[in-house]
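Appendix B. Chain record.
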Amino acid sequence: MSQQFDAIVIGTGQAGPTLTSRLAAAGLRVAVIERDRFGGSCVNYGCTPTKSLVASARAAWMARRASEYGVRIEGSIHVDMEAVKVRKDAIVRKSTEGLEQWLKGMDNVTVVEGDARFTGSRAVEVNGKTVEAEKIFLNVGTRERVPPLPGIDEVDSLTSTTMMDVDALPEHLVIVGGSYIGLEFGQMYRRFGSGVTIVEMGPRLIGREDPDVSEAIQDILENEGVEVRTSAECVTLAGRDGGVIVSADCSGEREDVEGSHVLLAVGRIPNTDTLGLEAAGIETDERGYVVVDDQLRTSAPGVWALGDCNGQGAFTHTSYNDCEIVAANLLDDDPRRVTDRIPCCGLFVDPPLGRIGMTEDQARATGRRILMGKRPMTKVARAVEKGEPHGFMKVLVDADSERILGAAILGIGGDEVVHSMLDVMYADAPYTVISRAIHIHPTVAELVPTMLQDLRELEAKEGTASV
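Structure tokens predicted for this chain:
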């Protein structure tokens, strides 16, 4: 005999709990199903723990730089990795336990722990029992992709999840993958004191970003002692003396990188393969992501997909926005769409990258007349005064409509300051609104108006800005 609910929410990542709260507050009886840890990947393996580790790594880095600021520290700087992990675990535990208690204490909510699998269009089996509902919401997230590299079965490789259990300093960490996860871990462990080599199969780091962003980030990492190997088209792994050998074909020359540990950071795949989606008629694409429309409805009536598993974004903030879109459409009579949102993301190396809207390459591809403003962080008083004048800020504007198309700030506070331009984009206001604003001195944000007051037209084809 099945148990009946008004709604079923599968997964407690960023979108699930808040949507559950909204549905329950509207009087619906909701079953929440979680097979692993409450909070999903962000709280347990992603944003929360990694940014906690980044903070510890920055403290070590600043301690080593103390003399640059006239501060004398006697003796060497030692990082206690066990203590670093204890701090990180405490922060994670507070979040996950608080979330679990919140869900289990909600009126109209039943929490079920176990693996969910569809047995029909409205039926889900968990722990041998069936729960049914007219509305079902998938929030099952993604997991690390472990590629079939030659030799992968011969070594004990790490992923961003298993790295969370590491409480000792790797002598030399080799990271396969030079995008967001790989770069954050690379700088982090270099600052802890490990030797670090990043092996990237593409011609440059973070290939989705503009070349100037990739180059600047590589310079920042290499200046801190991180070794970077790009164009590593053929990567193989092998064990040696308790460590690992990563062999890569870099720019036509085979190179062997010897390390004590290897971290695989080569993307993620959706957790949809065990859900029995075919039983409910839920369509997925060739990569396993659930196909959704502009309001996050799947091909099966009464089923929605939110968060990373729908392929519409791979960030905590897009997952939360998915929740807001679904709740607004279902409960608030407020039609909202995925295409209403402007792409935005952050890369939390230090200094961080904040990026919104189009990249320079994407803007060029539109065929519009593009204006660009650019300023190095060496011109930002706040960055110079803090001794961190690395990176630059860049903005792209449609010359005819005067609307901001995109921006990137790689530099101290860049992940925060970039929102000043993002909000102008959401307001559909011309760039002059912010270019004529007065910003506080000395801040990073004060250079945004200055940058917008010195726009130059980009050449139609790839090249530098014309004067």
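Further analysis of this model is presented in Appendix C.
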